[in-house]
Specification:
The protein has 11 helices and 4 strands; from the N terminus they run H-H-H-H-H-H-H-H-H-H-E-E-E-E-H. With 230 residues, it is mainly alpha-helical. The strands form 2 sheets. The chain has a two-stranded antiparallel ribbon. Strands 2-3 form a two-stranded antiparallel ribbon. A hairpin with a 3-residue loop joins strand 2 and strand 3. The radius of gyration is 23 Å and the shape is globular.
């Protein structure tokens, strides 16, 4: 029995055409990647320089929060400044010390205290620890923690994760001015003062979670001292 020849494909496209179609679409055609990489390199270098005092005029030009309903994700610099601002305003909240104390006495189960601790970790340079406790608070439905994660992922260029938290914020009708305070009133951090919190934090290793920073009771008084000096 003779075998009938297979019909030739009618699609005239080449393998290059198909591969081109399979490439990931650029979702940020207007984003200046070269400039973003330069900013990230500059920021990374700055983190390894000795701490510096508050410098007049060092604050960002904008004084309004990044809104979750904005058309595009904030760039790394803007997200960084906003994250610093919301962290500082959280620490300066009237109940921040009591919330941190409740977090410790509850064996780390208080979501408001978890937010305070995460913001303190962020400002002291422990981004991994901050992200861990922001996620804990966000999992307990703390909307300011969700906003912190939105900004932190945007700062790191993790746009899919930032979009996830932005969606959560939109679902909860989050308003930064209402829940975070006046953006223009946030003080500038002084790194050498914030670095004094490290002796009051332990970092045990959890077999499944890895290193998890935990506040000691003495951190409550250190927070009070810190906010009195900034």
């Amino acid at each position: 029995m003779s075998t009938l020849p297979l019909p030739l494909p009618s699609d005239p496209r080449t393998i290059d055409d198909l591969l081109d179609k399979a490439r990931t679409r650029n979702r940020y055609p207007a984003y200046n990647m070269a400039a973003a990489e330069a900013r990230l390199r500059s920021r990374q270098a700055a983190r390894h320089r000795p701490p510096r005092q508050r410098i007049p005029g060092a604050a960002p030009a904008h004084t309004t929060w990044t809104a979750p309903d904005a058309d595009r994700t904030p760039d790394a610099d803007r997200a960084w400044w906003d994250l610093n601002a919301v962290s500082l305003l959280t620490l300066f909240g009237p109940d921040a010390d009591r919330q941190l104390a409740a977090f410790i006495t509850s064996q780390y189960a208080d979501k408001a205290g978890a937010l305070v601790f995460a913001c303190l970790l962020h400002l002291s340079g422990d981004s991994n620890g901050a992200r861990f406790w922001w996620r804990f608070a966000a999992g307990a439905d703390h909307h300011v923690a969700e906003y912190c994660l939105f900004l932190e992922h945007a700062h790191c260029g993790e746009y899919d994760d930032a979009e996830h938290w932005r969606t959560q914020l939109l679902h909860h009708q989050f308003e930064p001015d209402l829940l975070c305070g006046d953006r223009a009133t946030a003080p500038l951090p002084i790194p050498e003062l914030i670095g004094d919190v490290h002796p009051h934090i332990t970092r045990p290793h959890h077999p499944e979670l890895g290193i998890v920073p935990l506040p000691q009771p003495s951190l409550v008084d250190q927070l009070r001292l810190l906010t009195s000096l900034l």
